[in-house]
Design a protein that fits this description.
alpha+beta; 4 helices; OB fold (Dihydrolipoamide Acetyltransferase, E2P); single chain
């Protein structure tokens, strides 16, 4: 028995919905003041130091991050060297050094709250701070526009 026949919803008019095509997914956040690697790490160079993290695109692809393994202070890495691991409910991904340097500081809060990488990848979700081996290496990194172009 139809709803109107039972007295429910009497007087309600049903409208057909028109399909408007697929909904565009919001673009990843890519701050213009940072530099980027093709392996989805971001770099903020300040003088002879750099702060390094993963991009918004990377954290979206990983989904819910549950564990982060980072290097110890004092360790030195060359460009493209593996410096850590990010584990999510979906997968495990290696982290690659976008610029050569020695680790000065590690974001220890990620041990207790790895989900911070999902919530604030460019702020509280930073990974490591390094003393740069050669600040000129930053010229090999991508601008925000160049990085965004690699995502398409």
């Amino acid at each position: 028995m139809a709803r109107a026949d039972r007295g429910e919803g009497a007087g309600l008019e049903m409208k057909a919905l028109k399909w408007r095509g697929p909904v565009a997914r919001a673009m990843s956040n890519t701050p213009a003041d940072l530099l980027y690697s093709k392996s989805h790490e971001w770099v903020k160079v300040t003088g002879g130091e750099a702060l390094i993290g993963i991009t918004d695109h990377a954290q979206e692809a990983l989904n819910d991050i549950v564990y982060v393994e980072l290097p110890k202070k004092g360790e030195t890495f060359e460009v493209d060297a593996e410096f850590g691991v990010v584990e999510s409910v979906k997968s495990v991904s290696d982290l690659y050094m976008p610029i050569a340097g020695t680790v000065l500081d590690v974001n220890g809060s990620l041990d207790e709250s790895p989900e911070t990488l999902n919530e604030d990848p460019y702020g509280k979700g930073w990974l490591i701070r390094v003393k740069l081996k050669d600040p000129a290496q930053a010229k090999a990194l991508l601008s925000a526009a160049q990085y965004t172009a690699t995502l398409h």
